[in-house]
Structures are given as structure tokens and as C-alpha cells.
Amino acid sequence: MTLCVLDTDLLSLYQRNHPQVCARIRLARQNGLILKTTVVTVEEQYGGRLAQIRKAQTPETLVAAYDRLLATFALFSQLEILAYDLTAADFFKQIRQMGIRIGTQDLRIASIVLAHSGIVVTRNRKDFEQVPGLTIEDWSA
Q: What is the DSSP string of 8-71?
């Protein structure tokens, strides 16, 4: 079975009901692809949601921020989350030693995907294409 790992950007598009992304995820599920995400995406998503709650200045914006937090929790309850483990940490170290300079969070996601021999599903080709051996698909186009 093919493992497809949804990165933070693509998962955000899904949450906003991006038509192509939603259609591709439905198709992937129908075709038996394994869809997962990473603990790094969980960190980024929850961090963003908590920041929105802290910044809310009106009851309406606070309610909306808490609604987004609940929706994010519901989404992650439907996906298996891949850990950042020692194998991923080894990939991370090797890639850094190659001199590849992409964002730390993207590199952690890439390392987790490599550790699980998966495909990263993202529209961020610019950064992820720099990682040797990483298979990339963009479901937003």
C-alpha cells in the first residue's frame, strides 16, 4: 500500500475545503491509499489555533477561534499521526550535513516521510524538492 503523508500546508487547504484537495483526498481513500500526517503538522496546527485564541479580542473572534480548534481536533482524530523518532532524527541530521537549507519544520516532516518510505503530499515543491530521495505529490493543482 502507498503511504501518503499530508503536510501542514496541504492539510490547511483541506480544512478550507479546497476543491481539488478535497477531491484528491476522497479519491485516495476510495483507492485504498494510506493517508497520514506528522506530529510536526499537529504542532504547527495546534500552535496556530492556540495563538488565535490568545489574540482574540471579541467574544465572536474567540468563539470562532475555539471552533477552529475543535475542528482541528476532529480532523486529527481521523488521521494517524507519524512520530518524529530516532530514525527521522537520523535523516534530519544527514540532510542538514549535506548543507540543504530549508525550514526546520519542513525538514522534520521530510525526515519523517523518508523514515516511513512515504510520499509527502504538499504544494511546497520549492523546499521539499531539495531533499534527496523524497517523493513529492501536489494534490492542489
A: HHHHHHHHTT-HHHHHHHHHHHHTT-EEEEEHHHHHHHHHHHHHHHHH--SHHHHHHHHHHHHH
- Hey, which CATH number is domain 3-137, 3.40.1350.10, 3.40.50.1010, 3.40.50.300, 3.30.470.10? 3.40.50.1010
pLDDT digits (tens, 9 = 90+) for 70-106: 999 999 999 999 999 999 999 999 999 999 989 999 9
The pLDDT of residue 48? 96
Q: How far apart are CA 109 and CA 87, in angstroms?
A: 12
Q: Which residue in 20, 47, 24, 58 sits closest to 4, CA to CA?
A: 24
- pLDDT tens digits, one per residue of 14-35: 999 999 999 999 999 999 999 9
Domain limits, the chain? 3-137
